[in-house]
Design goal:
The strands form 2 sheets. The chain has a 4-stranded antiparallel beta sheet with strand order 1-2-7-6, with no helix packed on it. Strands 3-4-5 form a 3-stranded antiparallel beta sheet, with no helix packed on it. The chain has one helix at about 10-30; strands at about 40-45, 50-55, 65-70, 70-80, 100-105, 110-120, 125-130. The chain is elongated. It is built from 1 helix and 7 strands, in the order H-E-E-E-E-E-E-E. The longest helix is centred in the first third of the chain and has 24 residues, at about 10-30. Strand 6 and strand 7 (about 125-130) form a beta hairpin.
């Protein structure tokens, strides 16, 4: 026979953590009612381009729009809700968030707005923004 420790505060601590999580979720929804979720993004600068990688699992690439205006890159999209085939297979728990998202990024002046490409593979959207070619100093000859 094993001995179990009685910890009366354990259940209260679990309750407080769950309550905090629910309050944070509610505050986020109230702060930004348009966005239901925000995909995580990694941004890196390479020699000739900027690269953004967004985690968008379950999002159809056709449901994503990318635009650039006045130096601001905007990415919007939507993860559709899962269709339940019959009413008897109800969810016991559903943690994956559905709905629309919007991300905006101010790009540096060295970003070339006409040289942007995007591809989606295995739930990761990768956006490459080439840099503008820097003007090299040149010597001007004086004619007589």
């Amino acid at each position: 026979m094993s001995t179990m420790r009685y910890e009366p505060w354990l259940m209260l601590n679990d309750f407080n953590r769950e309550l905090d999580r629910l309050m944070r979720t509610q505050q986020q929804e109230q702060a930004n009612p348009v966005n239901n979720w925000v995909p995580a993004v990694d941004i890196r600068e390479e020699q000739g381009c900027f690269c953004l990688s967004l985690d968008v699992p379950g999002v159809d690439p056709k449901a994503i729009q990318i635009s650039m205006e006045k130096g601001v890159l905007e990415i919007t999209g939507e993860r559709k809700t899962l269709e339940v085939k019959n009413e008897e297979s109800g969810y016991q728990r559903q943690e994956r968030i559905q709905g629309s998202f919007k991300r905006r990024f101010k790009l540096p002046e060295s970003a070339n707005a006409s040289e942007i490409t995007a591809k989606s593979e295995h739930g990761v959207l990768e956006i490459l923004i080439k840099k503008k070619v820097e003007e090299q100093p040149r010597r001007i000859e004086i004619t007589h």
